[in-house]
Design brief:
This protein is of the alpha/beta class. The chain has 3 domains: 57-169, Sandwich (Immunoglobulin-like); 180-196 and 237-398, von Willebrand factor, type A domain (Rossmann fold), CATH 3.40.50.410; 201-235, no CATH class. Helix content is 26%, strand content 33%. The chain has helices spanning 2-28, 30-51, 219-225, 253-269, 292-304, 313-316, 344-351, 372-376; strands at residues 58-64, 68-70, 75-83, 93-101, 110-116, 123-130, 136-148, 155-169, 180-181, 197-207, 229-235, 240-245, 273-278, 285-289, 328-333, 355-362, 380-385, 397-398. It has a 6-stranded mixed sheet, sandwiched between helices. A 5-stranded mixed sheet has the order 2-8-7-4-5.
Length: 399
């Protein structure tokens, strides 16, 4: 209502100025008075016509260089504005693209403003970049168009809803987790050399299944049977891994998400079966599985996850969440183990389910101490520094 009344007042003011200029020319006469009237008349006429010009007649399209990208990358946004009434000259247009993000404050309520001088142009194309995108699902919801006459006597503004989304996955490091065994006769062999299958010893062929690697395809058998066939490899011992991510609010939560993404991606690429469990409301859980589709589902969740975990860790350690006696359970958190976020009851329950590792994610220069009582119970606590994720796995061994 305030904007509407302001526009009405400006329109009345314009009419008053125009009537005053005409009255001055009529009563005063002479070259100067009529020159002032005829000089002001085109601008007043343009402003009057602008009042009735429909800015909502613009159609807007928004496109992105990529709709799915990793944190820290940049995206190029292209805007295409097409107007249905191109025969009216527009002196300028201020285009403001509004967007928001769900996980970080960097794009909570952001916008990008640009100015263009279209005149009689029917189609307007604009581009801009957003650099160093934070993790999250970012929504571009509307475009605001503003214009006015050269003297700003009449200003027009309209919002055009155009909804688009981009998904920014968490930053990850390319690590290759090495899970050593202290009970095997090959005590120093890592999981990358002893994964779900020994790919050097093919024992037969079978039909293709989702999650099979491209290199496993047997092209001769595929040509003979006219359907996709993959090699069957000798089965060897492997470890299932359940990653528990602590979603408690903390300053290092983004580093916790990045480390979790790095671990899961690395282990899935090594052929291990990995699951994810968080302490968010609703107990978000991804069962132990493998393959590219499983990785995409987990990364989509990690892109949207927020620091609002409120479920006690001992509840996550209940029997129904057990990954099995021979499995590895990895708890990723930024909380010190001496706080009530990691009670000994929870640690004992977690340890009963298999090999337990607690990764404490800290800043590079942040001091931290381990809790000896946990070490005595067989629970390994490993300090993780940002930028050095791969070094955390030099201490990981199964019992």
């Amino acid at each position: 209502m305030k904007k509407f009344l302001k526009q009405i007042w400006k329109l009345l003011l314009l009419l008053i100025f125009l009537a005053a200029a005409f009255s001055y020319a009529m009563f005063q006469g002479g070259f100067v008075s009529w020159f002032l009237f005829y000089s002001f008349f085109p601008f007043a006429l343009y402003a009057l016509l602008l009042v009735f010009y429909p800015l909502k007649s613009f159609s807007v399209e928004r496109s992105f260089s990529k709709t799915e990208l990793a944190a820290g990358e940049e995206v190029v946004v292209k805007l295409t504005l097409t107007r249905k009434i191109p025969y009216f000259p527009l002196f300028y247009i201020v285009v403001e693209d509004l967007f928001s993000g769900g996980t970080t404050s960097m794009l909570k309520n952001g916008s990008k403003k640009m100015i263009v001088y279209p005149w009689f142009k029917r189609k307007i194309e604009l581009e801009y970049k957003i650099e160093f995108l934070p993790r999250g699902e970012h929504t571009f919801h509307s475009l605001i168009l503003k214009t006015s006459d050269p003297f700003a006597l009449i200003e027009k503004e309209t919002a055009i809803p155009v909804a688009d989304q981009i998904l920014v996955y968490p930053f990850y490091e390319n690590i290759f987790p090495r899970v050593h065994s202290s009970s095997d006769d090959q005590a120093t062999v890592s999981s990358s050399e002893r994964s779900l299958r020994d790919t050097t010893m093919a024992t037969g062929v079978r039909e293709y299944q989702p999650g099979d690697r491209f290199s496993w395809i047997n092209w001769k058998a595929t040509a003979r049977r006219n359907r996709m066939m993959t090699k069957e490899f000798e089965q060897r011992r492997s470890f299932d891994v359940l990653v528990v991510m602590d979603c408690t609010p903390s300053a290092n939560f983004e580093a916790v998400v990045s480390f979790t993404a790095s671990v899961i991606r690395g282990m899935l690429r090594e052929g291990l079966q990995v699951g994810l469990l968080t302490n968010q409301a609703g107990e978000e859980r991804f069962p132990v599985s493998g393959g590219e589709s499983h990785e995409r589902e987990i990364f989509r969740y990690l892109a949207r996850v927020e620091a609002d975990g409120d479920i006690p860790l001992e509840q996550l350690a209940a029997e129904e969440h057990s990954p099995g006696k021979n499995a590895i359970l990895m708890l990723v958190t930024s909380q010190e183990p001496r706080t009530n976020m990691l009670p000994e009851k929870a640690v004992r329950q977690l340890y009963n389910h298999g090999n337990v590792y607690i990764f404490i994610v800290r800043d590079e220069n942040e001091p931290g101490e381990m809790r000896p009582s946990f070490k005595e119970k067989g629970v390994n606590i490993i300090s993780v520094r940002t930028g050095h994720f791969a070094e955390a796995f030099s201490e990981v061994k199964t019992r």
